[in-house]
Design brief:
The protein has about 210 residues and is mainly α. The chain is globular. It comes from Halomonas citrativorans. Pfam families: LysE (PF01810). It is a multi-pass membrane protein.
Length: about 210
Amino acid sequence: MPFSLWLSLAAICAMGAMSPGPSLALVLKHTLGGGRLPGITAALFHAAGVGFYALLTVWGLGALVTRSPDVFQLITWAGAAYLAWLGIKALRAGRAGVMSQQGVVTTRRQAAKEGMLVALGNPKLIIFFVALLSQFVTPDMSSMAKMIVVLTAMLIDGGWYVLVAVGLSHSRVLPWLQRHAHWINRLTGVLLIALALRVVMGPITIG
């Protein structure tokens, strides 16, 4: 793969990773609930989910999914339901917050599970990879070039959210987040439910 083409691929992956959405809310939630390690765990497993969709794209299965309306609709509704469920959980946390001493803190296992499921249940990722990443895949593409596409998507996504988790868990940042945990829970819950409703209302465009 020419370096100039790879730079274009990396730029698109970076824009996709950095756009606000449920992934950012998820990393924030687990960093707030357990500190740096659960936040990084959520970031890495989210990247694994991204890698799965990238792999589907280079195999040509992503386009197949979009040509099967029933399958795509099922994925869309399942993703919306999961985002709504996460949003309701965040709203119900209330003032108890995930960081209260008597509260139940998040664990690395929970962070890993939700990191993967948020990635796999986000219809925006399907559209992102099929509409944009598939443009970098050609029928005569070598296995090495396909691997570069998958690894680029994974490393940029994981790297960005690891940086987010590390930044949020800084000694000066985390105490502020802890003091405002109930407001952050509410904001995260509203964001996740709004995204779920947006998914249900119609196709998501990448902007």
